[in-house]
Amino acid sequence: MGIEEKEILGEMTPEDYRSNEIFLEHFGPGGTWDLSVKKAVENCISSKIPEHLWHYCSVKSLEAILKSKNMFMSNIHSMNDYKEGEWITDKLISKINSHYPELSGFIPYLSNYNVDFLQGPYVASFSSDGDLLSQWRGYGNDGKGVSVGIRGDKISIPLISFDNEALFGRTFITNVIYDEVKQENVIETLINLVKLVVSAASETKFNSNNHPYLYAATRIKFRLYFMAPMFKNPSFKEEGEWRIIGYPASTMSVSDNNNICSINMNKFGDNSDFKFRSSDNDIIDYITFPSVSSINSMIDAINLGPACILKKKTLGLFVSEQEIKSITIEKSKSTLRPT
Questions:
Q1: What is the separation, in whole angstroms, between the first and last Cα of the chain?
Q2: Which of 73, 174, 266, 315 is the most buried (most CB within 10 A)?
């Protein structure tokens, strides 16, 4: 039984009240999170979208994008990097384990309890460089594909902001944060928050059902859900990635790793915008961008990959049929041995 239910039923103990006080002090409006952690994250966000953002894809995907006038935003958990969405959380836990033994009692709550959402977050990935060899190899069909140039000033999506605690039902754009110094600053700020919670909780003996560690760890994991798509392994820095991130209205559950203890379940509205596609071995959920207007009005350049056989004239004719009035088509200057 959570603190809110106990309060309604008049079963709050002194320990429950103290646990609630600690929670509100650090996670309530104007608490430690708002004053430090949110600021540390927002200091990492670029204030200006580049002139062009480039989406690398196959020629077949280009055809689908232009005909449908939108592009897929994939569930982050179905992306190629199996650590997607976990990088910053793993670094936080690793740093506490290796440098802060006095906080070890908090780790089981942070490691063992999972905040799970039925859907998302969903991500569309772009690079700030439209002719990058690693991108051709990784996402441009081994150089046989294209990179699609979208004008930054045509993207009418706001830069990500954490003014609201829950970002469900909203879509944002952000640069991906690779910089180790900035990542470390966010992690240390989170650790300082954990220190405050641990210090405040040391004055009272709590049982497992009302321990402030439980509520603090759950709230940290809840907010890391929104932050996680922004952070990535620094070894991918060359990509210069930007992301459009969609946080759909979703169902949330909190449980331990054995799924034997369900702590809370909230329904954050309904969302009928998500769709499904299949691969040979899987069914994958996704949403589309943009949801209303046409992405074709944002495209004004296409680069042909170093091994792309598509002819400029043919592509020009096809593009003109897709209500794109003006476009620049260039051949990649990268060199890639044909396969």
A1: 60
A2: 73
Going from the first residue of the chain to its last (339 residues), give the mean pLDDT of each consecutive group of 10, the final group possibly shorter: 41 60 72 80 91 96 94 82 76 92 88 72 94 94 96 91 74 94 93 87 71 80 86 92 86 55 41 73 84 86 96 95 91 79
Helix, strand, coil shares of the chain, percent, nearest 5, are 40, 25, 35
Any domain includes 84: yes
Summarised one tens digit per residue, pLDDT across range 156-199 is 889 998 776 667 778 899 999 999 999 999 999 999 888 888 88
**339 lies in a domain?**
no
Kindly report the CA angle at 82 between 79 and 86, in degrees rounded to 5?
A: 105
- Whether 338 is covered by a domain: the verdict is no
Q: Three-state SS for 16?
A: helix
Count of residues making up the chain: 339
Give the whole-angstrom CA distance, residue 9 versus residue 176: 45
- Alpha helices (H) in 100-163, listed in sequence order: 107-112, 133-139
Domain that holds residue 121: 3-331
